[in-house]
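Weekly structure sync, notes
Attendees: PL (lead), two postdocs, one rotation student
Agenda item 3: pending single-chain targets
PL asked that the sequence for the first pending target be pasted directly into the notes so everyone works from the same version. It is reproduced below exactly as submitted, 157 residues in total.
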Amino acid sequence: MMEENKNIFTYIKQVFTVFGIIVLVFVALNLIIGEKTAGYSSLFALGKDGISIAVLCELLLLSVVITAAQVIFLTDRYIANMSMLIRNMLFFVTVMIVMVIMIFLFDWFPVRDAAAWTGFIISYALSMGLSALVTKSIEKIENSKMQKALDKYNGIK
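Predicted structure, written out during the meeting:
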């Protein structure tokens, strides 16, 4: 992916886009399982009543880390000569490691609960797959636009 000239506001926009998506996911999860997990997980401490300020700050921190990992692994700014497959794998592994650390630090769920880890791994795998599909679709659309522009340019010559 080509990295155009970006400034701090581009990255702030990216952080808050990621943050917004994460918060929407947690709002949906709160509505679905919030009451059942209210005393079980700090992420759902308020049940269906909302998301705590502490959790919102933790999710914002996660959004900053995800954006930093995107810049490092998914742009040509720092790593240009590595295959996109390896870069994507490094990105997803890095984000997963950070999330595991945050699970321990912020007590997102009881760390000795196998069901919670299974749920985390399944939800992470689903979100990773969805993210990969969306990214691939966007890439196809951009490649198609570039090919059309190239065809038009070559036709004019």
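Discussion points:
- Helices lie at 8-33, 53-74, 84-106, 114-156.
- Residues 114-156 form the longest helix (43 residues).
Action: rotation student to compare against the earlier draft before next sync.
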